[in-house]
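so i finally got all the pieces together for this one. its two components total, 1126 residues if u count the protein bits. some of the lines might not be protein, just check the labels. i wanna see the whole assembly predicted at once instead of chain by chain like last time, that was a mess tbh
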Amino acid sequence: MAAGLSAAQLTERHRATLDKALEAIRTRAYWSPHPEYPKAYGDGSGLGPAEGKAAFDALLGTRFELDQPGTDTWAGGEVSPYGIDLGIQYPHPDIDVLLPAMRAAIPAWREAGAEQRALACMEILARINARTHEFAHAVMHTSGQAFTMAFQAGGPHAQDRGLEAVAYAYAEQTRVPDSAQWIKPQGKRDPLRLRTTFTAVPRGVALLIGCNTFPTWNGFSGLFASLATGNPVLVKPHPRAVLPLALTVRIAREVLAEAGFDPNLVCLAAELPGEGIAKTLAVRPEIRIIDYTGSSAFGEWLEANAQQAQVFTEKAGVNTVVVDSTDDYRGMLSNLAFALSLYSGQMCTTPQNLLIPRDGITTDAGHKSYDEVVADLAAAIQGLLGEDARANALLGALVNPGVRERLENASSLGSVALASRQVTHPEFPDAIVRTPALVTLDGGKPEAEAAFLSECFGPVSFAVAVDSTEQAIALLRRTLREKGAMTVGAYTTSPDVERAAEEVCQEEFAQLSLNLTDGVYINQTAAFADFHGTGGNPAANSTLCDGAFVASRFRMVEVRRPA
Amino acid sequence: MAAGLSAAQLTERHRATLDKALEAIRTRAYWSPHPEYPKAYGDGSGLGPAEGKAAFDALLGTRFELDQPGTDTWAGGEVSPYGIDLGIQYPHPDIDVLLPAMRAAIPAWREAGAEQRALACMEILARINARTHEFAHAVMHTSGQAFTMAFQAGGPHAQDRGLEAVAYAYAEQTRVPDSAQWIKPQGKRDPLRLRTTFTAVPRGVALLIGCNTFPTWNGFSGLFASLATGNPVLVKPHPRAVLPLALTVRIAREVLAEAGFDPNLVCLAAELPGEGIAKTLAVRPEIRIIDYTGSSAFGEWLEANAQQAQVFTEKAGVNTVVVDSTDDYRGMLSNLAFALSLYSGQMCTTPQNLLIPRDGITTDAGHKSYDEVVADLAAAIQGLLGEDARANALLGALVNPGVRERLENASSLGSVALASRQVTHPEFPDAIVRTPALVTLDGGKPEAEAAFLSECFGPVSFAVAVDSTEQAIALLRRTLREKGAMTVGAYTTSPDVERAAEEVCQEEFAQLSLNLTDGVYINQTAAFADFHGTGGNPAANSTLCDGAFVASRFRMVEVRRPA
């Protein structure tokens, strides 16, 4: 254990950054304290590339000790989508021992107050940041993301989301002062006087249920929102993606102990094959907050059954792009090609349905028929992914066999405009790397609806032929209402269509990206600036990150006395 | 219809007050723009006493026209607890007509933006304030409150809670700017540039389910929180307390129409006898927010079944006072006597259980045995209510036959230390006016638990003998955990006991008043300064008013474009 970490040291290290984060969530300007280029790390600033790789390699085939109470056995079994057996064993909890130990950690953490909690969280994030190269390998070999994406999305971008949650939590808890004088005039009599203290009190133990594809990016908001508002956090990773969150738990425990807090404020719940520990934990009375990313079926089960908890979910959706017209046809095609290819479409924000009028669209390159748009998009994807090196760098590997099955089934859903191809990975020959498939469907045919009105998670997109842009807008509305979406896009040069798309997205609660043709993609959101989802459509009941995401994680308890 | 009300006029009238409200919810200092003395009204500043009375009298025996769509019949039947048959008929809705009309009002109200919505809400509140004398009679003759209390709690204090909700709603919606520039550096390349707009989008139609005892005070927070965040509000009053909320709806509709908005943003749903319209409305898909004050049974039903809505409830609880020791015995007794007597204990904040050590307590007037404390408290209540005029001014009338039955049953629960007495009301001889009963129970006896661990709403309090203050604290914890409470009090000169009470209230989420002996009572909370409930124990799932009370009533929708 390193020397103790004082409140003054934490303030010195992080208070100025917290203030910048608080400003960024107000202005929504671009800001990040976490460099996103691999070369920014090393030479005294965290682990460099070789050190990060070595740290990752040293974890393989080991027991991942956490020294948390109530470990009754060891669980593991992660196999990298790139073909490596990680061979790491994690502590499996006896929850009747672990949960009481976590609850016992609450009082001192509550009494530390919002600022000290925020600063300790920021120290955790800073140490995670310093080990971004190590995390990149851990994310890559659990999610199948290509290295650069695992580095950026699993590293600085995830850390940004964590810090954003810390800033929201701090802001929310400090909306009232620690104490106040209340003096009410009584005419000629003496005024009434009270001294009131306000304490942010955590709900209880929080449960984070992690996902396979973005263990850190989708996990850090909930983890840090709960921890910064005073709640211990039990981290239940996806069984295929334990390592990134186990590293997170270990670093959190180290920092908490150094700062004089109980390390059991953050614990890991690895699970045995088929155990379904999340379902058991979710309805335990100690669990008062749940953050979940995953399937709609389990998310809806949590919302309906974990009534003792505040439940924040991100579930499946059907992301849609309305293609009406463009003044930059090439830009549109290349932007969409990239958006569909990135991480083989395995993002909750990847567009699935491209709604294209069957009579074609107006562009700066002349009128383009439906078939031409589809063919040109297919060509753009082929061009983007023509070289294997570039394809591997963009696509990564398929995260699990389910994605592969859906991809192989895609040709049965409609006409294949672009078939998926297998890409060989020079370093990892066992990796399943596939380019996206583009399938055409007729939006007017009821039998096609079953395909395009379900989430087909992975590298499959549908070019849906519609009668008109008006019909596209109507189908967008229906999709949002019935299935939800994390992202909506539209390409149009018409102010009327733009306005119609905005109206539908406002009325059905979806985040809209208009006419992206450059280096910003529909599937990317930036912490501090962008909300991830709205929490208002069926794809998610919460957004990363707003006041509602943090405000109910604690309650304000008031004590008043005569002054 | 009066001349139109422009945005500039609304700004001129209310923007400065909004800023003061925003400051007050931050500082928690005493503040109110609504005078609480009856003489402050009249002579050009709203309706004076005689005008208010006349306005109320003119409503009796009439049809209360609201000109809202879908009225299929008329409903009424309010009888004042003071014995007057109000004889007022209210529009009963065909909800299949009314709800779509309310939904149609959303877009223009959404587009008005947070500030114009806040200012229009403040104009509604200002007009309600000007008619405080009229509202006082309406609240008095539906709740049974005495005039002064109906005037203050039903008037300025309720208006304060409404304004507090408007301030929170405005603050929450303006945490992000209307639009932002996002410029991300790209090294030597041009930066990425986006222009993003943010729109607060209302959830849908909000349902306010009003209560019998405090139709305005308990109703205004939810009503104005929903309206200020862009949601139309359907007001479903308690069938015995329609008039105060019907007046509110009428004034809201007038202001909205004058300001150029659709008056159907606020509508009334009066119900036929036994109809149970709240249950029907609560699960309608159009209803996306519910605010409820009332029984635990229906509150829990709403929380479990209205899954399509954000549900905010205030239910039953068992308010408790720990009596350990005091350095102002007379002050304690007179403060408690007043707290138990006010509105005949028919407040959700009235103390029910007084936990008193059976070996007695230390006071500035020497040691007092359990029996002495009980007898002295009984005497203090008798002294306070000895004169009928004063008793009538404090007690008001019993709100409904259920309260009277519970009171009459109280003597069967334990030993009666102070029997309730009937007070004659000179002006309203049919009013049922009763002083509170004080019943002693043995906290160690399981058969007594059934009495003191249930809410006995009305003028019945229990002096519960406990073995020690330690046992009192343990019983307080159990009561909070199992039954919840809106208020907790403690009297002690011991820092250790004070700390123990604070800890229990923090861990079990209760608002604590310590050593109140002067003119502040445990059952009174002040808007802008005090939270009403915590939302963390079984008595309520929300508090008036915090960020969580407003943040999920809207969702932020973002549109981003290349800049």
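The longest strand of chain B covers residues 189-202.
Chain B touches chain A through 67 residues (CB under 8 Å).
anyway lmk what u think
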